[in-house]
């Protein structure tokens, strides 16, 4: 039918299949060789077979590439979902903890204080989910306001200090500045929380997590340190890349990528110093409000 449509008369035909995983995925066909003899020789067959083999490999490589792209996409989605679940654990634990305290608390004012914290944590859950999804899409939104540095640190300590101690770790904090800072306080608290979670996972029970705030020139400097095992040398240069992790249980490495993005959005800087067996310090610098 094809020959009729093309108005061709087949005299000599050479047909070589494309093989992939023992399956025929196509074929190459040549008809009516021109020349003195008008037929395909053994050398022609060898050449055509070689061409068909190369085309078959090209088709197979393309198929494998498409399968890898699909697998990588599914893996990225899986990592994203794992990250969301992992990051949501901390505010969920806080909600459970403060609800338990409310049940045992008789003082009305104290219960209202706990209820406000629970409400803030529910809002944080929603915002955290939005943050992760926006990060995946390459978007970010910060709502900066004038905020006292000491209030930022004290609120964070108030929220997490007791939970850290209940887990068997020590928590120390200090503020050596009365300055204001132009930040999105919820996003910066999220930065502290992500670093804190990594610190707790790196430490044995009894280890110490420290949060210190001070000034250096025109910058507000936050030092967040732990007495853990340190960051493996092989990932230190890629620490803030997406999905870089040292293989700790439940982690995907997206937390520090979000940390870097938030600090960049605040026109700040983040540095890390780590020593194997002694611990890690993250130094965050954000312009002080003049």
Describe this structure in words.
Helix content is 52%, strand content 22%. It has two domains: 65 residues, no CATH class; 148 residues, Histidine kinase-like ATPase, C-terminal domain (Heat Shock Protein 90, 2-Layer Sandwich), CATH 3.30.565.10. A five-stranded mixed beta sheet has the order 4-6-7-9-8, covered by helices on one side. Strands 1-2 form a two-stranded antiparallel sheet. The longest helix has 63 residues. α4 runs parallel beside α5. It has seven helices and nine strands; from the N terminus they run αββααβαββαββααββ. It is an alpha+beta fold and 290 residues long.
Helix fraction by DSSP (H/I, runs of at least 4): 40-55%
Principal-axes geometry comes out as elongated
CATH superfamily of the largest domain: Histidine kinase-like ATPase, C-terminal domain
CATH fold topology of the largest domain: Heat Shock Protein 90
Number of helices: 7
- The chain-level structural class is alpha+beta
Please tell me how large the radius of gyration is.
31 Å
Features:
five-stranded mixed beta sheet, alpha+beta, two-stranded antiparallel ribbon, 290 residues, 9 strands, 52% helix
Topology:
Blueprint: H1 2-6, E1 13-20, E2 23-31, H2 42-104, H3 108-137, E3 145-148, H4 149-166, E4 170-175, E5 180-183, H5 185-202, E6 208-216, E7 219-226, H6 233-236, H7 254-265, E8 269-275, E9 279-287
Parallel strand pairs: 4-6
Antiparallel strand pairs: 1-2, 3-5, 6-7, 7-9, 8-9
């Amino acid at each position: 039918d094809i020959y009729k449509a093309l108005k061709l008369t087949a005299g000599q035909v050479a047909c070589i299949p494309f093989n992939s995983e023992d399956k025929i995925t196509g074929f190459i066909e040549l008809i009516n060789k021109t020349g003195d003899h008008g037929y395909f020789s053994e050398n022609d067959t060898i050449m055509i077979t070689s061409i068909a083999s190369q085309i078959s490999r090209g088709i197979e490589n393309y198929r494998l590439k498409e399968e890898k792209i699909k697998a990588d996409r599914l893996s990225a989605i899986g990592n994203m979902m794992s990250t969301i679940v992992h990051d949501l654990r901390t505010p969920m634990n806080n909600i459970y903890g403060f609800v338990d305290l409310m049940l045992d608390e008789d003082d009305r004012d104290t219960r209202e204080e706990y209820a406000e914290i629970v409400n803030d944590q529910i809002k944080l859950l929603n915002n955290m989910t939005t943050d992760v999804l926006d990060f995946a899409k390459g978007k970010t939104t910060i709502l900066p306001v004038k905020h006292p540095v000491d209030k930022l640190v004290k609120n964070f300590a108030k929220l997490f200090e007791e939970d850290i101690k209940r887990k068997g770790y020590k928590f120390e904090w200090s503020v050596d500045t009365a300055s204001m800072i132009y930040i999105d306080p919820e996003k910066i608290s999220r930065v502290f929380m992500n670093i804190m979670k990594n610190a707790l996972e790196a430490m044995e029970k009894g280890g110490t997590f420290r949060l210190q705030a001070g000034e250096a020139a025109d910058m507000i400097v936050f030092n967040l340190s732990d007495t853990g095992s340190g960051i493996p040398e092989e990932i230190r240069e890629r620490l803030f890349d997406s999905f870089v992790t040292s293989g700790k249980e439940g982690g995907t490495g997206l937390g520090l990528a979000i940390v870097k993005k938030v600090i960049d959005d605040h026109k700040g800087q983040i540095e890390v110093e780590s020593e194997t067996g002694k611990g890690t310090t993250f130094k965050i610098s954000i312009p002080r409000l003049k």
